[in-house]
Amino acid sequence: MRVRTALGWTAAAVLVGGAGTAAADEAITVFPPKAAPGSTVFVRVSCPDSAEWVEYSSPAFAAPTRVDLAGETAAEQEFVLSDDLEPGDYQVRGECGAADSSHVQYASVTVPAPDGSAVPAPQHTTPSPAPTPSGAPNAGGGGLARPASTTTPPFDVLAAGLLLLGATAVVALRQGVRRGRPAAK
Length: 185
What we know:
It is a single chain. The chain is an alpha+beta fold. The protein has helices at residues 2-25, 154-180; strands at 27-31, 40-46, 53-57, 65-68, 74-80, 88-97, 102-111. Strand 1 and strand 2 form a beta hairpin.
């Protein structure tokens, strides 16, 4: 039994290790990760073996670009960032595709502020007020309010335990009394 358990754990570890390696092969990277408007970045996408093409797209680029993989599992493409980009993070999308499937991966490129400082925090807008409800609330029907609980309160558990202990003592006592009585004549 122990041999089978050990073999099962070993097989599970091998399967998990193999899945981790396959997942690690699929990746997208942008270099350099921070770049000024008008500068060049390189985007590298690693795809599954079945992929036939990669399509790159980002709001930071002028237009999407599709590259045939020609039997390769990775592609690298050079992009010039648009000149009019505001400071911030821009999503870069790499889609690995074939005739019957595709797989999308994401990375980002950061455009720093002109003075080289950190990217300013996004501007927050004031949320619109919540709508005013009309009509009667649909909250359920009367009775005492009691919070829903998925666990049994400790008092109930204690009471059930004491009841079980008492019943066991009574049964044991009755059996002991029966055994201790002299036989009827």
